[in-house]
Amino acid sequence: MYAESVSEEALRQDFETLTVSKRLVRSVSQKLRKKNHRGEGGEEDKVRGVSLKCLTLYGRGGGCKVGADTGEELGDPSYRRRSSASEEGKVYKSICGIEDNNFDCFSYGVREKFWKKNNRKDLDLEESVRNSRMHIFLPDDILEMCLVRLPLTSLMNARLVCKKWRHLTTTPRFLQMRREGSCQKPWLFIFGAVKDGYCSGEIHALDVSQDQWHRISADILRGRFMFSVASMQDDIYIVGGCSSLTNFGRVDRSSFKTHKGVLVFSPLTKSWRKASSMKFARSMPILGISEVCSDFSVIQSHQNRHDRQFPRSRVGGVSDVYEDPHRLSLRRQYRNAFDENEPSLLPNRRSYKFIRQRCEQANMKGCKRFVLIAVGGLGSWDEPLNSGEIYDFLSNKWTEIQKLPIDFGVVCAGVVCNGMFYVCSENDKLAGYDIERGFWIGIQTSAFPPHVHEYYPKLVSCNGHLFLLSVSWCEGDGQIGRRNKAVRKLWELDLMYLTWTEVSVHPDAPMDWNPVFVADRNLIFGVEMFKIFGQVLDFFTVCDVSDVEMNWSHISRNHMAHELDASSCMTKTMAVLHL
């Protein structure tokens, strides 16, 4: 009985407190209504009995704290302690679980909006913590599978998320997975841009699938021009070049220095590194990259063949094997000039043993082996070169190869096709270098494609086929008074019968004297730049050789050369990668 009386007494006190709170709220609301009586606000006060102008008296949680200020007026200091910072986020509820709507000074949905507005920072913090927890508990192998499928631009943005993602996407394992995946898209990289008379060193990259241009700053190339580039897997090799001695950064050939250094650029990691320098300084060398067998040795194949000049030739598709089966004439010819037992010509056993060990390690890892060939170009005195060098990626060394004959002429184009490095000269001669065996072969075709001598031919290779692009005059259909026009044609060489066949015609007029054509897989990409009406224009085209018709199409309508100088038309070079 005593307990029941105590509980009834406590309940009665609570009801009295509630009555006092209602009276206080009513009085304060009437005062505010009289003071801030305005149009719709007054009508809403009559309906709800409280003004919406008392938002400053409400806490974050939506509970009304009208009684908080009046509690001090009534001499209740303990109420101030109850409304501390720890209680601000709580909603005040009525006694006995019955909520009186008269205490809610917010309309429907306003409480939640007001609470979210004042707690936005807290929500962002909670979301970031939730995301960080998700990243921590996501396994690395699953994360790799997700990141390896991203486009290149998205992958670059993903590396900015955290250090873990950056490290995970730059490991050799990740790069190998991306290289072997099917999510790669072709990218074109344009080098040699000249702006305001200076070699800016900027690289313009085109995402062919998205038709978007990206600009990459490369301070290491600033002031360097007339170099050549070649792509190998995910890297781009910049070989040779020139730089002005008097006006650094400008395209000035009055006083210049020719380089023999080699730089390597990796677009996936945006990193640069230096490779071994060539033995001779060259500008605009003709480059070619070929895959070789695992037991390939540069020293064994090339060191003993410096002085041999075209020991073999092919005429009209008939090999000299049928003319001289036992090669007795070749043996007699080089018996005195070449001695295989001469100690000075034998390869260094220690270096050969070292390279052999590196080859065995590469075979165990299942890595491919490549070599880079640099032939021709201009020397330190701006003289044409007929020498060549080969670079082994495994040993990081350059080795001289057999020279081209003097009567071959100046090399103007070259490409690797089926293990043979084909080069053509300004004299319409064709030769091939057998990379595995280490000697040149003179190739005489039925009839070299006709071309205008001011436009040098270009060689490209796609899917084991050798193509040549040349500019020739097109007849005016026999009509009197109609001017002849020049067109650029695509020719294919039959490697069996050594005959040229016209397969396609380029749609654009040959306005560029120095166009660049690069092939990758079954696609031939071309870039032409020329200045007209005071502005430099660029045209990018592509041809799919797997298509029967082999039609050309334009791939970029966003001209990137409008801000470049006209000298960029001569200094430009291009490389293509699938990234």
From TrEMBL:
Transmembrane segments: none
Matching InterPro entries: F-box-like_dom_sf, F-box_dom, Kelch-typ_b-propeller, Kelch_1
F-box domain mapped to chain residues: 132-178
Domain of life: Eukaryota
GO cellular component terms given for this protein: SCF ubiquitin ligase complex
Full protein name: F-box domain-containing protein
The species this protein was found in: Gossypium darwinii
Organism phylogeny: Eukaryota, Viridiplantae, Streptophyta, Embryophyta, Tracheophyta
